[in-house]
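Backbone-to-sequence.
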């Protein structure tokens, strides 16, 4: 998903080759958080070049782990200008990533959405709507509102 006026990241981005540092961080269970590209360490040079190419200014990725295995990442980026990622917001994103990983694990083992816990149910329904129509863009806007992302990020 991308906010109106911005192109989506190419879906065929090979993270292992174009973001090796970020993937290594995620595999070790550590988030990737930077306010500015200049904040990235020297060992993230390949990642930095990728981020520059797609126009990313600031970014946070919380790894999604199920039973110790990396299954993905919850990523949010800023394309217009550098943004802060305050510690309280990072904590909420970490909690949400853990919840999302649990929902994905339940989906993988075939637990139906109506059996999901109350807190995870709306997430599950948004990601896997019964009607087969995508509601991801609306869900992403609601996600940013619920986590108060715009209110927590100094512009």
């Amino acid at each position: 998903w991308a906010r109106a006026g911005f192109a989506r990241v190419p879906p065929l981005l090979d993270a292992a080759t174009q973001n090796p540092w970020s993937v290594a961080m995620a595999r070790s269970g550590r988030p990737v958080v930077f306010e500015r590209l200049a904040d990235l360490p020297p060992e993230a040079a390949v990642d930095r070049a990728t981020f520059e190419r797609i126009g990313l200014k600031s970014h946070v990725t919380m790894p999604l782990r199920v039973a110790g295995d990396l299954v993905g990442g919850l990523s949010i980026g800023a394309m217009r200008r550098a943004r802060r990622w305050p510690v309280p917001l990072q904590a909420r994103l970490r909690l949400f990533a853990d919840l999302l990983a649990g929902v994905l694990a339940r989906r993988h083992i075939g637990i139906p959405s109506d059996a999901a816990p109350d807190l995870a149910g709306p997430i599950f329904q948004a990601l896997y709507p019964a009607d087969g129509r995508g509601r991801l863009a609306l869900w992403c806007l609601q996600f940013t509102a619920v986590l108060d992302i715009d209110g927590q990020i100094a512009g």
